[in-house]
Design goal:
By secondary structure, the chain is an alpha/beta fold. The protein has one domain (2-11, 41-282): 4-Layer Sandwich (Purple Acid Phosphatase, chain A, domain 2). It is 24% helix and 18% strand. The chain has helices at residues 2-16, 53-63, 84-93, 102-114, 136-142, 147-154, 185-190, and strands spanning 32-34, 42-46, 69-73, 97-98, 159-162, 167-170, 193-195, 198-200, 207-208, 218-221, 236-238, 248-254, 258-263. α4 packs across α5 (136-142). The N and C termini lie close together (10 Å). The protein binds manganese (II) ion (MN). Manganese (II) ion (MN) is lined by residues 76, 101-103, 171, 223.
Length: 290
């Protein structure tokens, strides 16, 4: 019942309100894309893959994807899982879209640090990047990427609008009440909570950003594996169901609002924070329509 009321309520709101669009941008337009496509049979949003190539392949097989499907990833394609390069290759070959996740962003920074991409390629504010010496996995991964991988990563936006479905795709989230172009770029990639009106990576202090998000648009996001799949919001859905931590890889399909999942083959890496236990009421049938 919870899921059904979610779908009906959201549909009604969409039909009666205008979709917000970004206008002037205070940071490089390279990080923003408005995605206009030919009508496709399905738009499939995929949660954080984190190098879990095998689960990714199984999910695509289960989805029975066709060239008419538009596939959009919520970022963090790489790191933590066993085959980041394979994921990048498949994402490129199947012409998938994605937004930039915090790990993708750090990989770019490591690539610049090691000279694989030109100095000045990483133009986001400094709080979007970490010290490369403290991210050895990303440094090692940078040595394995192809030129096409770098070109693809450099093309990823911080947010992506899908007007056809009145959807905004971001990796982590945004601060409610602030226009997209005035958001902190780091918030798009790292936010979990709002603390004293500002974005925070914490999941303990303040409240989750999504609990304050009243839409429109409907936001599809990832990053927050600690809270697992988040389907209980009217105006957003969180798709990071922690595949790399032994959870699931999740796809959300529009139209229809169907959820399709593949269970992780194994626990690929230990979680950095304890996973918040999922409430019984939040559990869903892995192939259900919301
Ligand atoms: Mn992330």
């Amino acid at each position: 019942m919870l899921c059904r009321s979610f779908a009906l309520k959201t549909t009604r709101k969409f039909s009666s309100r205008l979709f917000v669009r970004s206008s002037l941008l205070s940071f490089s337009s390279r990080y923003v894309r408005r995605f206009m496509s030919e009508p496709k049979s399905r738009t499939i949003f995929i949660g954080d893959i984190h190098g879990c190539l095998s689960e990714f392949e199984h999910l695509l097989k289960k989805l029975k994807i066709t060239p008419n499907d538009e596939i959009i990833c919520v970022g963090d394609l790489i790191a933590k899982g066993p085959n980041s390069c394979g994921v990048l290759k498949l994402v490129r070959e199947l012409n998938m879209k994605s937004v930039l996740g915090n790990h993708d962003c750090q990989l770019l920074f490591c690539g610049e640090h090691l000279g694989f991409i030109p100095k000045g390629s990483c133009t986001l504010p400094s709080n979007c990047y970490g010290d490369p010496s403290k991210t050895p996995e990303h440094l090692e991964l940078a040595k394995q990427l192809t030129k096409d991988d770098w070109t693809y990563l450099l093309s990823l936006p911080l947010y992506l609008e899908v007007p056809e479905h009145k959807v905004l795709v971001v990796h982590a989230g945004l601060v409610p009440g602030i226009p997209y172009d005035l958001q902190e770029p780091a918030d798009f990639m790292k936010i979990r909570n709002i603390v004293n009106g500002r974005g925070s990576e914490s999941h303990n202090d303040g409240v989750s950003w999504v609990s304050l998000w009243n839409g429109p648009p409907f936001v599809v996001f990832g990053h927050d594996a600690i809270r697992r799949l988040q389907t209980g919001h009217d105006w957003a859905i969180g798709l990071d169901s922690g595949c790399c931590y032994g959870g699931d890889l999740t796809a959300f399909i529009m139209p229809g609002r169907e959820i399709v999942q593949i269970a992780a083959q194994k626990n690929h890496c230990p979680p950095t924070s304890p996973i918040i236990p999922q409430q019984e009421s939040e559990k869903i049938n892995p192939n259900s329509s919301l």
